[in-house]
Specification:
The chain is of the alpha/beta class. The protein is built from 20 helices and 17 strands. The protein is globular. Bound molecules: pyridoxal-5'-phosphate (PLP).
Amino acid sequence: MALPVFKTGEAEYLGLAGSIPVRLRQSRPIGGRVQDRDPRRSLPRTDAVLADPRLESAASHLGRARVKRAVTEQLQALRTDVVSAGAGTDAASVVDAVLRGLPDGATSLQRVINATGVVLHTNLGRAPLSPAAVQALATAAGYVDVEFDLTDGSRARRGRGTLAALRAQVPDAEAVHVVNNGAAALVLATLALAAGREVVVSRGEMVEIGDGFRLPDLITATGARLREVGTTNRVTLDDYAAAVGPDTGCVLKVHPSNFRIEGFTRSVDVLDLATLGVPVVADIGSGLLYPDSLLPGEPDVTSALRAGAAVVTCSGDKLLGGPQAGLVFGTADVVEAMRRHPLARALRVDKLTLAALEATVDGPPSPTHRALHADPDDLRGRCERLAADLADLAEIGAEVVRSDGVVGGGGAPGVTLTGWAVALPESYAAALRSGRPPIVGRVERGRCLLDLRCVDSADDEAVAAAVRAVGAGGV
Ligand SMILES: *Cc1c(COP(=O)(O)O)cnc(C)c1O
């Protein structure tokens, strides 16, 4: 009986070179004996598949390693899955299958259409960048004068354009600094003001910011000691005053941005904390630069500085709608101490962040801003058009329903944003997620809601087409 023998190429591809691949094949006879007509024997070699011009073209923008991995995986799938091995095992079919599975770009991240109605969805990357910011990223990707003075060829202040743009928006700040994220901004403020000393903070503000990270742990990790005052629901200025002493590095005011305590509560605002005679650090979380009437409970940088905060910290990719970053606004001496701290270098942002941040602050309204301020009637009109577009698919019963959007991302937990959605059968949620691009809706009371608040209106037709494609697939 002739034993199937691996060709050299196959043995190498399986990582079996040097071992005894023949035995491996031998130990898995089909139907009790090895079959000579096993379609798996006729699989093309990896090299032969890779030589296809269509895959060479894919390799030129995705990288050869990525494409080779996809070919290897496809051949492996054909080898192990007898059903699919029965068809499409010739080189051209293998290439077709590989091309279908390859991403459009060289990142494994997939563009997602956010139809959840959650504007800052942490799992979907928080704030989407504006076209202006995307353009700035592309510019910054090459050699740029991020730290270079083109007039005299000398070294220049890193990110000076970004810092100037931020200062122009917040004239009350004597100085501005940018770090990697909001947590880094708080860490750096604590390091500069209170390492080895005490940070006085209310027990009602000891928040967890997500994924198990807690602000109290962050602060003690800097070498500062926490001095907790008040209770979960109430704290008074006297509580703070009793705790402040020669060992106080700063008083910290944290905006509890992802939850709300209601009822018998009391807190002390920055204006009063600033009378204590020690620097007040205000972590406002979301990054509003000035008040927004849509979000009355949300603190902003300008107001916190005017109230007397020495330093205000926040994120760049929440309500500001920019790239991930931590923004620091404050008095010249404290910001300079932060900038000069040895760990500042470990928290510094790259040129891409600086470019996207400047374009966000100086440029047209961000997608985050537009989604937050979307006109409910406009959203309703778009939903009605989508539902009408799908009306011929009677079995899905697409229907326009009220849908309250939320800010999300640890911001404005009490605020609901009046809006609309198209309701589909619940089974559409999973099917739409597996489309290209994936559409992420919200499952509510047994239905899949597509809320268009965070969907670019240019994508409305793509959404309709995706629903149609799912319908045709018979979900
Ligand atoms: C979100 C948030 C942080 C953390 O900011 P990141 O940019 O996610 O690091 C810290 N403090 C508050 C109050 C927040 O809302």
